[in-house]
């Protein structure tokens, strides 16, 4: 807060205190600078204090006010409110950071790798967290070696959202022991500007693996002898001696050998396996024909493995120790066996397939083909019996091959329904017999040295729509900004699926309405229309126009396709988990008000002032305000000219987002106040924003015809002395004099001057520099309004006896203070009027000493002390008869009211006793007032004294009309009133143990100050339902003083809530007693007796939590497939009246289904309402029935 000292005197700041309209907090530590602190005249300074927001504080927009206590020359000065300069902030629920399970990436790394990690965090609180990139770190350790990485850059965790954070790349220590290690994340940054530090340990661990170590297994190369022109598929054994797997990429992994001219090169057959896990494994290469021109002989092969190891590139090249022998083909040879129409089939498929056996006569004589036999193997196991084979038209002697001729013999294959097919790569071996027609020699061709065929038997395709992910959390009805629906598809089988992306077959479904305009996908995100076996890919539906109905929208998809191997049409699939978003109504801005934070304002003033525009979003869609668009967001004063008004950069509470149904303030700074007619002038304005969901511009304006908001403009005042208002005009030297005079502010549109008592002074004196000086009295008003004459009363001060007497001196008055918050000074003179200073008489009244304030008609006695001085040498005998020595009470603006007062006359001097005042002595006469007058106001107490000079017999007298009178305030009696009783919450639960509070607002409607009697405070309710409470002993603001016209608060702490099983509304009747400081009279306010100021609270019946329903929400409920993921919907009801928080519900089953989260927590169930939540369950791999509870 900034404190301004507008006076001409140095002040000492003693205490500062914050108050908040809604939040509960405490200040911690010292003020900066520390208190007490000296503040120079006409200066200001910021003071900073730390505030701790208590955990139970209400959230939302809160107003910050402050009060300050200072000392100036021994006089206490207070400012109890910042008035229009109060601060505004938003209290948000604290950040609540949790790890999103399964989001850690990567989850496995190799020793020595440079790796960077990322994961997602959920912030369930409202407050955003900004993470510091130099102190936020991720680490894991085996106890000796530690991996540690910092954030790559500063990153944010916005409130109520999920965010992904990424760390920089660091080396996994080579000396770390392989194994699984928990990850520790130190989150360090700021939360709404305050320091934030939290440690989280994700539920997922990092697996540290030894690097892959690849070696060839000797003797594993197959085959080692091949024939030219035959189609050969090689396989080799690999030993992975490390801990990390290698994922080989088929196009980057190959086997090759060459005779120097001809080259054989075969790529990896990925369908038969591409992953080298730790231990022994086999790689299979595609079948490729041995070049016809390759020379026969032994050749060494070269193998290159290319792929990834734990996500990073991996490559190695080696030469197997075993050689490959290339031989001449026999006279009758099987070149190849080709499977048609494709070399992949589905186990037990109905569709047939073919094997084309290509044979050739490499001799010159004709060869008759007599017999053909095919055998099927998966590894060493023969599976010939799993297929039915038919060579069709091939029979003994049906084919004759001329020399050099080749042909294809088709063999029809079909599933043998008598047994189940084994999945895996089936190798086709063949034997062919024939006869050389020239020599009648029997010829045999085999696939031992090449020509084998193969096909892959795959498990049936299983199309799963695993998830629907919506790219936005909110959208606006009928918005045309695109958003996406991503359907995550998975093929849980091995057979490939051809997707049917016809819009009538594959489409998205929306629960709110059917008028969404969707651009359907034309291919998978990974490309093409084929979802390979075991693969996961995504379909992207683009929503070109959102539907017309708002509300929570569930998004599902229907996907169709067919199994490529068999052409089997798959059943339509809906999503296992639907996506969700909220369709919101359109944003609609409304300007609620435009309020000048300074009102009134002085025309052409230099001081900057502000106008708050209160804006509400009447729709559901959030908008981003655009105050930078000065042509569309503005406030104006159309009646004026020359105003410079600067647009804000953000909302008062920060940021530019105005959520749906929210309202907030834009504060415009008026840096130059121009020319404008005085009086109330209308404020106009406009505001422009962009709807966040749709990008649609939103604008509203309030012109002069529609606006009811205004600000009043004043003219800078030109005050003058009001002629003939100076009083007194004659004073006696040596006496104490209080002077009053009138100030005329003639124009009704002049700004009101608020005077500073210390800086507003009155001075007169002689040419020798002997001066009378005083300040504005505490009993004087400080406001000088326009269009009126205001009487100012200055504090009494002694007239210097050195001032030359019998001369009239003009009075100089310096007015100092502020007008409409602007500094103001004016120097006035009463010339030609003035004050005449007379010599002090021998018997002189130098002062009337009285209390500063008393109460109207007060019966409690008080004293008026008439202080006398004998300025001569001879003693004076006083005449204490009522006609000669007396007091006069004059009410300013009313007149003499002495008759209203009951006075007991003194019988002698206070100190010396008797009635003789010696020469040069000072003593006093003590008058006792036993009955105060009935007229309230500022009272001038004058005195008259008479006596006789003992030596000369001369009669002497004096009065205070030329100085020495007293001034006091006769106040209306104190009148304590309890205005309102407000409990800290509107409802409590029957018999609850947690404390709650009752705040009572107390107002002193009278003038006299009160002090609280601590043991008088009571809080009464229905005697049938008593409760325990702690009464306050002081005001919430501190202390026990309740000044006249002041307002304070009492806080009762209820420590035990009554037990009311059926619930009830309890009336709260507070009572408080006070002692009037002036009179000591006890005054009390009892809300029950007065029938006003009391409050109430609802004591609710306890929460009664019940399970309303527990339903299987699978698409074909109650039926599910084995291993199918499906939801179980839980509906919880609260039949009680009180709300229930943090309700934990566990789902159990006697079966073997896997429940993802067996225990869920429902944050709140309001009384009389139901709440729905979901358990995610995966069915077991066995058929049967399960009961969930």
Describe this structure as you would to a colleague.
Strands 87, 89, 90, 91, 93, 95, 96 and 97 form an 8-stranded mixed β-sheet that branches. Strands 39, 41, 42, 44, 46, 47 and 48 form a 7-stranded mixed β-sheet that branches. The protein starts with a strand and ends in an 11-residue tail after the last strand. It is mostly beta strands. The chain has 10 domains: 2-91, Immunoglobulin-like, CATH 2.60.40; 103-209, Immunoglobulin-like; 214-327, Immunoglobulin-like, CATH 2.60.40; 332-458, Immunoglobulins (Immunoglobulin-like, Sandwich), CATH 2.60.40; 471-584, Immunoglobulin-like (Sandwich); 589-714, Immunoglobulins (Immunoglobulin-like); 720-838, Immunoglobulin-like; 843-971, Immunoglobulins (Immunoglobulin-like), CATH 2.60.40; and more. It is elongated. It contains 1 helix and 114 strands. The chain is 0% helix and 52% strand. The longest helix is centred in the last third of the chain and has 4 residues, at 1087-1090.
* Total DSSP E strands: 114
Most strands sheet: 8 strands, mixed
Q: What is the straight-line distance between the termini?
A: 59 Å
Share of residues in strands: over 45%
Annotated CATH topology of the largest domain: Immunoglobulin-like
List segments where confidence is low: pLDDT < 50 over at least 5 consecutive residues: none
What is the CATH class of the largest domain?
Answer: Mainly Beta
Radius of gyration: 50 Å
Q: Please count the helical segments.
A: 1
Question: What is the average per-residue confidence, as pLDDT, rounded to a whole number?
Answer: 91
* CATH architecture title of the largest domain: Sandwich
Helix content: under 10%
